[in-house]
Amino acid sequence: MTQQTARTKPPWLLPVIVGFIALIGIAVAYFMLSGSTDSDQSADRSGTGDEGGVVDVVKQDEADQVDLSHVERRDAADPLAIGDVDAPVTMVVFSDYQCPFCASWSAETLPVMMDYVDDDLLRIEWRDLNVFGPESERASKAAFAAALQDNFWEYHHELFANGDIREPSDLSEAALVELAADLDLDTEQFADDMQSDEVAETILENQRLGTDLGAYSTPAFVVGGEPLLGAQPTEVFVDAVDAAVAKE
Q: Which CATH superfamily is domain 36-247 in?
């Protein structure tokens, strides 16, 4: 399934009217109770441990269920998305290229989610949260620059090769351009895009999308409008997508 690329800025869909303040407040509570903080993740950057980055999911009572489907963009020109814009379920992923739990999820669970994409049941929209600082932000700009050359997923998989994160020194501008060269990208255009104001604004916008929901640790997900937190076992995501598809 091919992606369309565009240099236009994706539309900002977060509601700003007073009527949604309560909704965002509830969403903050769900994301903030993820069971892992930024500082916890920072201390664990060198590996995922025996638990593979698993944290508890905040269970929603039926009366407290929150619909976060407004974070879905379903923009056919979104270079960080894959899957039919009319797929019954959308998964919004908030990630960080220095997050070991994100790397393990990308290696272990993302391939299974791609099977749903291939079956036109799921659309995945990637959003970088960049909680670990400048190297994360630089990597997200590089991934976006690759996306503008139709190579987001290839570049993404290299940043998380073998389910591991790269050392900060391997996320320098020179190293990221070298990786683009390894993937036969136009490195001159790639470097220009990495430094462009348009890419910087889009990366910041994507980050705000997560932080406005109260997502301050990674990975965090919205599946079919419902929050799902942490690098849960693959079966948890399979069940979540299956349940969301069944509702359609």
A: Glutaredoxin (3.40.30.10)
